[in-house]
């Protein structure tokens, strides 16, 4: 081997060694922000199933402080959340979710079609004024993961 090759090998080895040691010394990236998830509910027969999924999600990550959850409801699925029609289990779950910081969004178009206002719905709901599907798209554009159980 000639001197140029020996010198090049030595410089390459030194560079690789320094690069590896600096990579090990680099600080670890801070943990990513907590997961953001939006649940989409439009089927009335899936209300209890979806509410159970949300509770399992909260429990599975160690509590509401570890996840940001939104529930967007439109179509026939909104009726079980009318105060006059809600069963005690749904009322209790909605109250707990509201305390846990779950965004409960009711489609403004569905509210008009069902002739209800926020005061007719269980406490804790907000209106998705532009519509449920628009709210879903907005949340997804903000990094929310979309789930439709």
UniProtKB/TrEMBL annotation:
Keywords on record: Signal
Signal peptide: 1-25
Xref: SUPFAM superfamilies: DsrEFH-like
Keyword Signal among UniProt keywords: yes
UniProt name for this protein: Uncharacterized protein
Native organism: Bradyrhizobium huanghuaihaiense
């Amino acid at each position: 081997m000639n001197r140029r090759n020996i010198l090049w090998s030595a410089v390459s080895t030194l560079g690789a060694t320094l690069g590896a040691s600096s990579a090990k010394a680099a600080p670890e990236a801070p943990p990513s922000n907590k997961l953001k998830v939006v649940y989409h509910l439009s089927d009335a027969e899936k209300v209890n199933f979806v509410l159970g999924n949300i509770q399992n999600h909260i429990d599975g990550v160690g509590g509401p402080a570890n996840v940001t959850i939104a529930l967007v409801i439109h179509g026939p699925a909104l009726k079980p959340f009318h105060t006059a029609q809600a069963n005690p289990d749904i009322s209790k779950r909605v109250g707990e979710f509201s305390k846990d910081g779950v965004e409960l969004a009711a489609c403004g178009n569905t509210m008009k079609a069902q002739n209800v206002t926020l005061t007719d719905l269980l406490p804790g709901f907000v209106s998705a004024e532009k519509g449920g599907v628009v709210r879903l798209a907005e949340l997804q554009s903000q990094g929310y993961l979309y789930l439709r159980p």
